[in-house]
Amino acid sequence: MSKIQRFEDLEARKIAREITKEVYRICKNDLFKHDFGLGNQICRASVSIMSNIAEGFERDGDREFIYFLSIAKGSVGEVRSQLYVALDQNYISESEFKFIYEKAVENSRIISGLINYLKHSELKGRKFKS
User: Which domains, ranges and CATH numbers included, belong to the chain?
Assistant: First the structure.
C-alpha cells in the first residue's frame, strides 16, 4: 500500500468530489432549482463529505481523522436520504438517483473501511511521530 501524502489522494475524497459534482449538476435542474431548501441542504451535505475527509486528514492524528470520517459518513447518509426526496418529488430521474446513490453507498463503504483501518493501526498519525 502506498503512503498517502495528501487528502486529495484518498479514494474516499475522490468519490466525494464526484458525488458533489453530480449533486450540484442535478440541483441546476429547473424543478429542483425552485426547492431552495432541499437543494441547499443536499449541496451542503455533499460538500460536508469532502470537507470533513480533508479536515480530518489535515489534523494529523488518527483519532481526529476517525472523528471527521464519521461525520463525513453521516453526511453520505444525509445525501442518500435527500436523494429519495428528490426522486419522490420528480426532481431527478430514476437513473440519476441510482447513479448518485450507488456512488454514495460506495463512498460510505470506503469511509467505513478507512475508519476500521485507522482503529486497528499501530500508527497514531503524523503529529505523533518523533
Answer: 10-122 (1.20.1440.60)
CB atoms inside a 10 Å sphere around CB 28 = 9
* pTM of the complete model: 0.90
Q: At what angle do helices 94-120 and 62-88 cross, to 10 degrees?
A: 160
Alpha-helical regions (H) of 1-130? 11-27, 30-33, 36-58, 62-88, 94-120
- Dist CA 39 CA 34 (whole Å): 8
Instruction: Answer for the pair 127, 60: CB distance below 8 angstroms, yes or no.
Output: yes
Given a contact cutoff of 8 angstroms between Cβ atoms, the answer to whether 125 and 65 are in contact is: yes
| Block mean pLDDT (10 aa), the chain, length 130 | 81 98 95 92 98 94 93 98 97 97 98 94 59
C-alpha cell of 100? 448518485
